[in-house]
Amino acid sequence: MIEFGDKIRRIPAYPTAAGYDLGPEVALLASNETAFAPAEPVQAAAARALAGANRYPDPSYSPLRKALSAHYDIPVERIALGNGSCDVLLSAGEALLEEGAELVYAWPAFSVYPHLAAASGARAIEVSLDGEHRHDLDAIAKEITVATRLVLICNPNNPTSTAVGLDEIESFLEQVPAHVAVILDEAYIEFSLVVGDPLASVPLLERFPNLVLLRTFSKVYGLAGLRVGYALCGSAEFATAVDQVRQPFYLTAPAVAAATEALAHQDEVERRVSATVGSRETLVAALRERGLWVAESDANFVWLRLRGSEPEVVEGLRERGVLVRAGAALGHAGYLRVTVGTDAENAKFVDSLDALVA
Ligand SMILES: Cc1ncc(COP(=O)(O)O)c(C=O)c1O
């Protein structure tokens, strides 16, 4: 029998969504992707890059780095790119954590966070959300000790969809010692009305060199299948450190080309956000009309408390061609996380739920 390292026993399996083989009429509401396909110029850019795929990509990925630098007005050296933002997150864990170190995050939050502690041997401190399933930043601040290396704040929070305002985040950051890295995971920031503007948190980087804003092309930009994420860093040393622990070629040339093109189409981002926020309001209202508790969603998904047995509802929805995420797999049994899809998909979900939960 092969003998693996201890971490292989510690690292939790990622709760992958099943059912991608069920056919095109299935409503894929389990992974918080956008229902909109990449815009035509974005697809064309990826296709052009594919024609040169006999060469390795430029390892500095400079077109994308420069485009992000211009868009956010921060120097290229303070941008870390990744094979999805998960890649940056896991590399940050590798670069910052080790046995004896501590990592603090709210729970439930993004299901990859526990992996960082398990992979490194660091201790994970999980802090409960408040009664409205929002981050309790005061409680998180109280858990920071001399051993803390990293704090993760997911805003808006996956899976609970809630967000905290930047004023609260700023007061929190003022309490964090300068040697502790804070990753503000903003995978869903474009959908947030509480924060209001995806550029709003960027000036915080000038005040807090230990802050990192984690972003992705997988959600509103519609490139989940190409795997591109990035981090805007308060200091260049964070970007250098995550690059030190990774292979040199972590992005593919078509992915870099598509992401660079997608960033240029901010009108498309705005169109998607307003369509998604409109559909989200309709979906939340329909669920609340049925007497269900639904968290104040600030993302492209909703989080609701179920009546009835969670495994039976999830399985019943799957049989009816609707895939959602069970709360049990995400750290909170008795709840469902449902991506905002097209209006037809959302209606199919609500109708199916009606049939299952009287
Ligand atoms: C909060 C959060 N952060 C990061 C990610 C990772 O996204 P990706 O690796 O596709 O950029 C996700 C994906 O669902 C997420 O929900």
For this structure, what is the CATH class of the largest domain?
Alpha Beta
Write the element-wise H/E pattern from the N-terminal end onward: HEHHEHEHEHEHEHEEHHHEHEEEH
What ligands can be seen in this structure?
Answer: pyridoxal-5'-phosphate
pLDDT average, as an integer? 95
Main structural class: alpha/beta
- Amount of helix: 25-40%
Q: Name the beta content range.
A: 15-25%
SSE layout:
Blueprint: H1 7-10, E1 27-28, H2 40-50, H3 62-72, E2 79-82, H4 85-96, E3 102-107, H5 113-120, E4 123-128, H6 137-142, E5 148-154, H7 166-175, E6 181-185, H8 204-207, E7 211-216, E8 229-233, H9 236-244, H10 253-263, H11 266-289, E9 301-305, H12 310-319, E10 322-323, E11 325-326, E12 335-339, H13 343-356
Parallel strand pairs: 1-10, 3-4, 3-5, 5-6, 6-7
Antiparallel strand pairs: 2-8, 7-8, 9-12, 11-12
Helix pairs in contact: 2-10, 3-10, 4-5, 4-9, 11-13
Plain-language structure description:
By secondary structure, the chain is α/β, with parallel strands linked by helices. It folds into 2 domains: 7-38 and 267-356, Aspartate Aminotransferase, domain 1; 53-263, Aspartate Aminotransferase, domain 2 (3-Layer(aba) Sandwich). It contains 13 helices and 12 strands. The chain has helices spanning 7-10, 40-50, 62-72, 85-96, 113-120, 137-142, 166-175, 204-207, 236-244, 253-263, 266-289, 310-319, 343-356; strands at 27-28, 79-82, 102-107, 123-128, 148-154, 181-185, 211-216, 229-233, 301-305, 322-323, 325-326, 335-339. Strands 2-8-7-6-5-3-4 form a 7-stranded mixed sheet, with helices on both faces. Strands 9-12-11 form a 3-stranded antiparallel sheet, covered by helices on one side. Strand 3, helix 5 and strand 4 form a beta-alpha-beta unit. The longest helix has 24 residues, at 266-289. It is globular. It starts with 6 loop residues before the first helix and ends with a helix. The mean pLDDT is 95. Residues 32, 84-86, 110, 154, 158, 185, 187, 216, 218, 224, 229 line the site of pyridoxal-5'-phosphate.
